[in-house]
Amino acid sequence: MIIQARDLTRIYRTPASEVVVFENVNLDVPKGKLIAVIGPSGAGKSTLLHLLGGLDEPTRGTVLFQGQSIFSMSNSDLARFRNRHVGFVFQFHHLLPEFTAVENTMMPGLIRGDAKSVTESDARTILERVGLVNRLTHKVGELSGGEQQRVAIARALVGRPQLLLADEPTGNLDSRTGETIFQMIRELHAERGLTSVIVTHNERLAVQCDEVWEIDAGAMKRQPLP
């Protein structure tokens, strides 16, 4: 298993209330698998993904990456884990509008301290792979929604992470563009030997994955594929 959730619980507390997102969730993600997580809005799909990637901390339980609890790491080691081992793709791409496609894609490598020439070469290579060879120097505002999401995918994969976490990567796109983006993720998953967890509300896309898990009413269960 590359990543495992063990008795994962997330509760949001305020002085006036307590909201249990989910309790005692367990999930094993085998290396090389493409996993879909489905469920109604507000069920905790995004929260689960953020916990798996170390972007949020659980109320109880832990996440193991190759057998090591990520929440036992120091803040600097956890940041290094995210930068080197995890690629994130979000519904809203979170690209920096003042930079070009290639500059946005270079960001993880620059943060890592890689040589600028190597980082730029890697960024250009992955952008060409996702079909943006003619858009490298365009800024975010000059790109379509589908093109922006391609840049976000390139940015997530430029450092060759082991784990891809994608949160509704097609949810902000029209159905045709969304299908294209999803198929691209499937292809890159196979080409790069990734382990991937994709949150989606689109069950038609979800059933194309290796496994489908549904999170609802605070619990998680595996769904049979058709």
Give a structural overview:
The protein is of the alpha/beta class and 226 residues long. It contains seven helices and ten strands. It has helices at 45-52, 75-85, 101-112, 116-129, 145-157, 175-191, 203-206; strands spanning 3-13, 18-29, 34-38, 60-65, 68-69, 86-90, 163-167, 195-199, 211-216, 219-223. A six-stranded mixed beta sheet has the order 6-7-8-3-9-10. The chain has a four-stranded antiparallel beta sheet with strand order 2-1-4-5. Helix 3 packs across helix 4 (116-129) and helix 4 (116-129) crosses helix 5. The radius of gyration is 17 Å and the shape is globular.
Tags for this model:
alpha/beta, 7 helices, 226 residues
Q: Briefly, what is this?
A:
This protein is α/β, with parallel strands linked by helices and 226 residues long.
Tell me the distance between the termini.
Answer: 25 Å
Question: In DSSP terms, counting alpha (H) and pi (I) runs of 4 or more, how many helices?
Answer: 7
Question: Radius of gyration in whole Å, from Cα?
Answer: 17 Å
The tally of beta strands, per DSSP, is 10
Largest sheet: 6 strands, mixed
Strand content: 25-35%
Write the H/E string, N to C. EEEHEEHEHHHEHEHEE
| Residue-averaged pLDDT | 91
Unreliable segments (pLDDT under 50, ≥5 consecutive)? none
- Measured as a percent range, the helix fraction is 25-40%
The spatial strand order of the largest sheet comes to: 6-7-8-3-9-10
Strands, helices and their partners?
Layout: E1 3-13, E2 18-29, E3 34-38, H1 45-52, E4 60-65, E5 68-69, H2 75-85, E6 86-90, H3 101-112, H4 116-129, H5 145-157, E7 163-167, H6 175-191, E8 195-199, H7 203-206, E9 211-216, E10 219-223
Parallel strand pairs: 3-8, 3-9, 6-7, 7-8
Antiparallel strand pairs: 1-2, 1-4, 4-5, 9-10
Helix pairs in contact: 3-4, 3-5, 4-5, 5-6
